[in-house]
């Protein structure tokens, strides 16, 4: 089967991409909602993104790909990140998969997925924002740059955000230090869920180790 992407709708393209580019890591992104009342407690948005990956080590950059809400408006994470310039990007544990999926629901701006799903935050040392207490990995990030796509980007809010990592948290239970002082993350103990197409998710079932050939 061969398909011309120019002849497909946006929805068709999306479903083909999400079913073929698999498995995809899932970023669980925490941002702070804007508030006009300084006396209110801080409200945090939490949303999963599977158009996500690490794209550079110097500087250390994570990439988040955005589409738009069902009504065509930009997503809350997009608004918050461009305004606040900071976020915490988590990788969930397998035990958190149900909560991760629940936070994909569209809520009115300012409603907190953290509160709605009874998730717990904790201080993230040297970071402006907190982190999810039970997530095995978290990155404290600042906005590096962003790129928009489409003809009506002001209303659609589709594009890519590049986030520079400032600090990292790794749960001691999933990592160790070898004799050379390198931090080694155990992929079996870590095993964050990954995104497939449709309603499907993947977990690490089998580990294969291969040596890279020497040129």
Overview in brief:
This protein has 215 residues and is α+β, with helices and mostly antiparallel strands.
**CATH domain fold name:** Pnp Oxidase, Chain A
**Which blocks of ≥5 consecutive residues have pLDDT under 50?**
153-157
Q: Largest sheet at a glance? A: 7 strands, antiparallel
The CATH homologous superfamily name equals Electron Transport, Fmn-binding Protein, Chain A
Number of E-state strands = 14
The level-1 CATH class:
Mainly Beta
Choose one word for the global shape: globular
Q: Helical region count?
A: 6
Radius of gyration: 18 Å
- Percent in helix: 10-25%
Strand order of the largest sheet: 3-2-6-9-10-5-4
Beta-strand proportion: 25-35%
Number of domains: 1
Word description of this protein:
The protein is an alpha+beta fold. It has a single domain (25-196), classed as Pnp Oxidase, Chain A, CATH 2.30.110.10. 18% of the residues lie in helices and 33% in strands. The strands form 4 sheets. It has a 7-stranded antiparallel beta sheet. A 3-stranded antiparallel beta sheet has the order 1-13-14, with no helix packed on it. A two-stranded antiparallel ribbon has the order 7-8. The longest helix is centred in the first third of the chain and has 11 residues, at 10-20. The model is unreliable at 153-157 (pLDDT under 50).
């Amino acid at each position: 089967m061969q398909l011309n992407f120019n002849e497909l709708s946006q929805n068709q393209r999306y479903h083909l991409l999400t079913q073929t580019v698999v498995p995809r890591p899932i970023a669980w992104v925490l941002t702070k909602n804007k508030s006009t009342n300084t006396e209110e407690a801080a409200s945090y948005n939490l949303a999963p993104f599977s158009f996500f990956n690490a794209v550079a080590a110097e500087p250390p950059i994570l990439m988040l790909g955005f589409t738009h809400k069902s009504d065509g408006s930009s997503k809350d994470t997009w608004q918050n990140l461009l305004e606040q310039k900071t976020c915490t990007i988590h990788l969930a544990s397998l035990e958190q998969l149900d909560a991760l999926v629940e936070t994909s629901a569209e809520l009115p701006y300012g409603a907190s997925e953290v509160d709605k799903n009874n998730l717990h935050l904790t201080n993230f040392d040297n970071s402006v924002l907190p982190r999810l207490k039970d997530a095995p990995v978290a990155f404290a990030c600042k906005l590096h740059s962003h790129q928009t796509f489409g003809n009506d980007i002001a209303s659609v809010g589709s594009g890519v955000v590049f986030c520079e990592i400032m600090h990292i948290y790794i749960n001691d239970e999933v990592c160790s230090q070898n004799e050379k002082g390198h931090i080694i993350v155990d992929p079996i103990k870590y095993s964050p869920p990954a995104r497939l197409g449709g309603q499907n998710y993947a977990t690490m079932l089998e580990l294969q180790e291969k040596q890279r050939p020497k040129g």
